[in-house]
From TrEMBL:
One of its GO terms (molecular function) is DNA binding. InterPro entries: Cro/C1-type_HTH (IPR001387), Lambda_DNA-bd_dom_sf (IPR010982). This is DNA-binding transcriptional regulator, XRE-family HTH domain. It holds the Pfam family HTH_3. It comes from Thiohalomonas denitrificans. Keywords: DNA-binding, Membrane, Transmembrane, Transmembrane helix. Residues 22-53 form the HTH cro/C1-type domain. CDD domains: HTH_XRE. It comes from the Bacteria. The keyword Iron-sulfur does not apply. The keyword Transmembrane helix applies. The chain crosses the membrane at residues 55-74.
Length: 110
C-alpha cells in the first residue's frame, strides 16, 4: 500500500491560489476547459486536476497552463527571470557540491 504524501499548509495554500488564478485566467479569456487543454496539449481531466489544485500533476504542466492563461509566476519581465536564474546559479557555484552529515557532534565544552 502506497503511503500518502503530506504537504505543509503553506504549500497547500500556494497550490490552491495558483489553481484559482489559472481558472480565473481561463475564464477571463473566455476559454472552455477543452480549449485550454488543447492549447496546452493535455487532457481535459488533467486540466481539471490543475484547476482543483491536485498535487499529483507535474509541475511543468501546471507552469505551462499558467503561462498560457497569463498567470505571472515570478516576474513580469522575462529578462528579469533570466537575471534571477543567473544570480542563483552564481550562488550555487559558491556552495559545496554535496552536503554530508557531520557525524558525531564535536564536544567543545572545556
Amino acid at each position: 500500500m502506497a503511503k500518502e504524501r503530506t504537504y505543509s499548509r503553506y504549500t497547500r495554500e500556494a497550490v490552491t491560489l495558483l489553481a484559482k488564478q489559472i481558472r480565473l485566467g481561463r475564464k477571463q479569456r473566455r476559454w472552455t476547459e477543452h480549449e485550454l487543454a488543447d492549447r496546452a496539449g493535455i487532457s481535459r481531466a488533467t486540466l481539471q486536476k490543475i484547476e482543483k489544485g491536485d498535487m499529483g500533476v507535474a509541475i511543468g504542466l501546471v507552469f505551462e497552463v499558467a503561462a498560457l492563461v497569463g498567470v505571472t509566476l515570478f516576474d513580469e519581465e522575462r529578462a528579469s527571470l533570466a537575471m534571477h536564474i543567473t544570480r542563483t546559479d552564481d550562488k550555487l557555484a559558491l556552495l559545496p557540491g554535496a552536503v554530508r552529515n557531520r557525524g558525531k557532534p564535536v564536544d567543545d565544552e572545556f
